[in-house]
Design goal:
The chain contains ten helices and 24 strands. By secondary structure, the protein is α/β, with parallel strands linked by helices. The strands form six sheets. The chain has an eight-stranded parallel barrel. It has a six-stranded antiparallel beta sheet with strand order 14-16-17-23-19-20, with helices on one face. Strands 15-18-22-21 form a four-stranded antiparallel beta sheet, with no helix packed on it.
C-alpha cells in the first residue's frame, strides 16, 4: 500500500513545521496556497510581521492583511510563529525592508520599532505566543555585529514581555551556523544586562549540499549557549533545498531537481529530529525576489508557482514531507539509547523513536554524499538492539510506498530484531509496526 496522509486536524502535535514567509513583501500569495496547508500536516507555520507593510503612515498600523492569515492558520489547527521584521523606510536609519538590507540604527527608528512591536504584540497576543526577533542579522550583507543585534533584541524582547509576560522569545535566527563570536557577543551583552532570561529558544538556519552535515557546529553553539543558560532550546528555524538549477538564494550553485529536493528535504528533516531539534522547512511556496541583493526565482518551495503566483502543482517534496508528518508526530519520542549493528562500510544515518503505547520506529539512509538522481539500493543486514517488532513494514518516505517483510527476512530475539537485505539508499526508509502506520491499501 501507500502512506495515507493525515491532516493538521488529525495530528495533535508534531515537531515538523512549515515556512510561510515573504508574505510581508507580497512575494507569495497566501490565498493561492492556503488549501495545501492542512493536508501537508505541518503543525506550526513561520510568518514575518512586515513592519513596512503594516506601518505605511507614521504611528498608524494596519494589521488586516496579517489578521486574515493568522486567523486562517488557527482555523486549520496550525500554530502561527511570528517573526518581527524587517525595517521601515518611513524612518531615517529605519533599516532595510528585505533580507540582508540592514537593521534599524537611528534612535528615532529604534523607538518607532519599539512602538510597532508593542502594537503588534498587543494586537496578536491572544493568537500568537512565539515571537522571533529579526531574520538573519548575522547575514554578511547586513554588516551587523553580535552587539548591534543584541541591542535590537534586548529592546524588542523587553517590549514583548511587557505586553505578553508568557510569550516565548526566539533569538538569533542565524543564517550561518559557524559564528561563535557573533553568538558570544550577543549573549555577553544580555548577561551584562541581566537579561539572559529574555531568550527561550535559539533558532538556526544553515543550507548545506549534503543535508546530513554541519551538526557539529550546532552542537558547539548549543554548548556555548548552555554555559549561559542550559534551559535555552534550539530549533531549526529555516532550511530548504531548491528544485531547479540557477535558483536564487542558498545552494543555487548546484544542479538540483524535484527528485533531489524530495530526498534532501527528508534527510534534512530526519537528521534534525533524530538529534532532538524541531524542524521547519523553508518554504511552502516558491517565490520571486525583486531586490538588488537577491533577484529571480527561489525554487525552494514545496509548491510550484505560475507567473501570477498561483500554484501550478505540488512537487514530489510536498508529498514526501506529507508522508513524514503522517508518520512521526508527538505520539513518538526520540529513543536516545538506540544502537544498531551492521557489517557495511557505507556511511549512514539511523535514528529511532518510541511510540507512546508500544513499538518503535527506525529511520535509516545512506548519508555519505548529497542526494543523487540514481536510486542505488544496497541490500544490508542490521541488528537493531533492544527493539522488538511484532509485524514490521518498511516505508519509502520519498514515494510513500509501504512494503511488508517476508517472515524469513527478520528475526526477533532478546537482543532485539535482526533484519536481512534491507534495500538502503540515499533517501530515508522507515521501519515500524504495521499497526502504527497509516496505510492506504492499493
Amino acid at each position: 500500500g501507500t502512506i495515507q496522509f493525515r491532516s493538521t486536524e488529525e495530528i495533535a502535535g508534531s515537531d515538523l513545521w512549515i515556512g510561510c514567509e515573504v508574505l510581508d513583501r507580497d512575494y507569495a500569495d497566501y490565498d493561492a496556497y492556503k488549501d495545501y496547508l492542512p493536508q501537508l500536516g505541518a503543525k506550526k507555520a513561520r510568518l514575518q510581521s512586515g513592519w513596512a507593510k503594516t506601518e505605511k503612515e507614521k504611528g498608524v498600523y494596519d494589521f488586516k492583511w496579517l489578521d486574515a492569515i493568522v486567523d486562517d492558520l488557527i482555523s486549520k489547527k496550525i500554530e502561527p510563529w511570528m517573526q518581527i521584521s524587517y525595517g521601515n523606510p518611513l524612518y531615517p536609519g529605519g533599516g532595510g525592508i528585505s533580507l540582508g538590507e540592514g537593521l534599524p540604527t537611528s534612535e528615532e527608528a529604534l523607538q518607532a520599532w519599539e512602538n510597532y512591536t508593542r502594537a503588534l504584540v498587543k494586537h496578536f497576543q491572544g493568537r500568537v505566543s512565539e515571537w522571533e526577533i529579526w531574520n538573519e542579522a548575522d547575514h554578511g550583507y547586513n554588516k551587523s555585529s553580535g552587539l548591534e543585534y543584541a541591542n535590537l533584541y534586548y529592546r524588542t524582547a523587553k517590549v514583548v514581555r511587557a505586553v505578553q509576560p508568557n510569550a516565548k522569545l526566539l533569538a538569533l535566527s542565524m543564517a550561518g551556523i559557524n559564528k561563535p563570536k557573533f553568538v558570544k557577543d550577543f549573549l555577553d551583552f544580555l548577561k551584562e544586562k541581566d537579561a539572559i532570561h529574555l531568550v527561550d529558544v535559539v533558532t538556526f538556519h544553515g543550507y548545506l549540499a549534503n543535508p546530513d552535515q554541519g551538526f557539529h557546529y550546532i552542537d558547539s553553539l548549543k554548548n556555548l549557549t548552555h554555559t549561559y543558560d542550559p534551559s535555552i532550546a534550539f530549533w531549526q528555524g529555516e532550511t530548504g533545498c531548491p528544485s531547479t538549477l540557477a535558483t536564487s538564494g542558498a545552494l543555487k550553485q548546484y544542479p538540483w531537481s524535484e527528485k533531489l529536493q524530495a530526498k534532501w528535504s527528508l534527510r534534512r528533516a530526519l537528521a534534525h529530529l533524530g538529534r532532538g531539534y524541531p524542524y521547519l522547512h523553508f518554504t511552502i511556496s516558491e517565490y520571486v525576489y525583486d531586490r538588488e541583493l537577491f533577484s529571480g526565482l527561489n525554487s525552494k518551495g514545496l509548491l510550484k508557482i505560475n507567473p501570477d503566483k498561483s500554484i501550478a502543482y505540488a512537487k514530489p517534496a510536498y508529498y514526501a514531507y506529507q508522508n513524514l508528518t503522517a508518520l512521526l508526530d508527538h505520539d513518538y519520542t526520540l529513543d536516545t539509547t538506540f544502537s544498531y549493528e551492521t557489517k557495511s562500510d557505507y556511511h549512514m544515518s539511523a535514528f529511532s523513536w518510541k511510540h507512546k503505547q508500544s513499538g518503535n520506529m527506525v529511520a535509516i539512509w545512506l548519508d555519505g554524499s548529497k542526494p543523487t538522481e540514481n536510486d542505488w539500493y544496497i541490500p544490508l543486514d542490521f541488528q537493531f538492539n533492544g527493539i522488538s517488532f511484532k509485524d514490521p513494514v518498511v516505508v519509502d518516505t520519498r514515494t510513500g510506498e509501504v512494503f511488508e517483510f517476508p517472515p524469513d527476512q527478520y528475526k526477533v530475539s532478546e537482543k532485539g530484531t535482526e533484519f536481512k537485505n534491507i534495500p538502503v539508499y540515499d533517501s530515508p526508509l522507515i521501519i515500524l509496526d504495521r499497526t502504527n502506520a497509516p496505510i492506504k491499501n492499493l
